[in-house]
Design a protein that fits this description.
CATH superfamily: Ribonuclease Z/Hydroxyacylglutathione hydrolase-like
Number of helices: 7
Order of helices and strands: EEEHEHHEHEEEEEHEHEHEE
CATH topology: Metallo-beta-lactamase, Chain A
CATH class: Alpha Beta
Strand order of the largest sheet: 6-5-4-3-2-1-14
Length: 263
């Protein structure tokens, strides 16, 4: 993949939850824009899946956290620790961690526990406003965020390449008008779909609710992910199709999705 073409791809690293599974690691996704690699969430199993996808931790320039629950951040400590010692030498390329308000405090508390073992000198901490939409520009992509319905710090992200191709990552959320706004006309929406419709719980989506968000946002393609084991017992696609008729993918670990340039 050439560094100057900005072509985007997504690899689902973890399509599962906090429930241990041989099939699904906890939440994580790799977004590649040219040679720039962005990691979205860092749940248990992420680093192994990265290696299986042909990527090392030193290839990652950015980690975007949707919120601070362990199934989304549980391997962050290991990632930072490995950045000091993996391969026999410390990380040389800068790493930026992005999340909602409270990230600096969260990182400081991790250092209270682990001290210098997870301190790397080339780490940038970027806190986004998790009460209103926020937007940041980086070298070859923009990152828009918006608060969603889960934790106080929970935000969803929209990443856009220079050619206008866009990927939206929902993180964990209940039904959210904000997510519909953020995902409007997106090329790809990676959306949580934790439990079947009949087992709906507060703070999470079901297949039909994820489909309703995708339909109202007019996304080009929908990927459902973050499946609890109960989802394996039902027809996820059928439930989603109550509202969404567009291209639909049910996530599996290490599934790679190349995004065409529609612009």
């Amino acid at each position: 993949m050439e560094s100057d073409n900005g072509k985007m791809s997504v690899t689902i690293l973890g399509s599962g939850t906090c429930t241990p599974s041989l099939r699904r690691s906890a939440c994580s996704a790799l977004v590649e824009i040219g040679n720039t690699k962005l990691l979205f969430d860092c749940g248990p199993g992420t680093m192994r899946r990265l290696l299986e996808a042909g990527t090392t931790i030193f290839d990652i320039s950015f980690i975007f956290l949707s919120h601070f629950h362990p199934d989304h951040t549980g391997e962050l400590v290991s990632f930072l620790f490995s950045s000091k010692y993996a391969g026999g030498k410390p990380r040389e390329t800068p790493l930026t961690i992005v999340a909602g308000k409270g990230l600096a405090e969260f990182h400081d508390k991790l250092k209270t526990v682990y001290g210098p073992w997870i301190e790397i000198g080339i780490l940038n901490i970027v806190e986004l406003d998790n009460t209103v939409p926020d937007s940041r520009s980086f070298e070859n992509f923009t990152a828009d965020s918006i608060p969603v319905e889960h934790n106080d710090e929970s935000i969803a992200y929209r990443i856009q390449s220079p050619d206008g191709t866009s990927v939206v990552y929902s993180g964990d959320t209940d039904f959210s008008e904000n997510l519909i706004t953020l995902a409007e006309n997106a090329d790809l929406l990676i959306c949580e779909s934790a439990l079947p419709d009949e087992l709906k719980v507060r703070g999470h989506l079901t297949p039909s609710l994820a489909g309703k968000i995708a339909a109202r946002a007019n996304v080009r393609k929908l990927v459902l992910t973050h499946f609890y084991p109960e989802c394996e017992q039902i027809d996820i696609e059928k439930e989603c199709r109550k509202h969404y008729t567009g291209p639909l993918i049910l996530a599996e670990d290490l599934m790679k999705i190349d995004l065409p340039n529609y612009k």
